[in-house]
Each structure stands twice: as C-alpha cells, then as structure tokens.
Amino acid sequence: MAWNPERNALLAKLWSDGSPTPSIAATLGTTKNAILGKAYRLGLPRRAPSSRPGSAPRPVCSVSPAPPEKPLHPVLGLRQGLCRWPIGDVIAPDFRFCLDGTADRAVYCAHHARIATQPSRSR
After folding, report:
1. Which InterPro entries match (predicted)?
2. What is the pLDDT of residue 34?
3. Domain segments of the chain: what residues?
C-alpha cells in the first residue's frame, strides 16, 4: 500500500501518542521496519528503546583495563635468522619466543621445525 498524506498523518498521530511500533504496523498494514523508515523520513522524533519485561539492563564496566607495561607480543624484536616459536601464554608477562638460530630463511630452529612439521600418515 502506498504512503499518502492520510497514512502519514495517522502514522504521526500514533507515533506521537506513543503507540508501539508493531501495533502501528498492524494498524497501517505494513511492517515494523517500514514504520521505522517512514518515521525517520518524516522527521518524527526518535523514541527511547523500550525495555522488555524481565530483561535487566546491561552492566556498564567502569574500570578500564590498565595498559600493559611492555608489549605483549615482542614480535618487533624478531629478525630473520631467529626462531619464532612462541613459548608460554601470550598474555603472561613471561611470554617470549625461542630466538635460537635458524637455517637460511627458516622460521623455526631445527628442534621446533621437527615439532611443527609432522610427517603425513599413509592411508
């Protein structure tokens, strides 16, 4: 059904009366999203979202996390020729990389390369 001045006026009246959007949609024979879009295009004032019965408001965290004293990932210190095998938990303060020497253009040292590359199983 097309929007006409009468439907626009009825929408504006129901909107200003505070009728719920689904009931406005049922009255006008359209969808809730169509009502919201038309209300926006008509410049009707925004309404606060209604709280559903039984739903508690979301808690707001007032404590901001402390910035780390040092970067959690010391990746910037890695250079070619150093083993990049991670050791420990990345969020732990003692997290580090192996940093042993590697063969030319290798990512891991010989020990960690053996762990990282498993031979394929025959079928």
Report:
1. GcrA (IPR011681)
2. 92
3. 5-42, 67-117
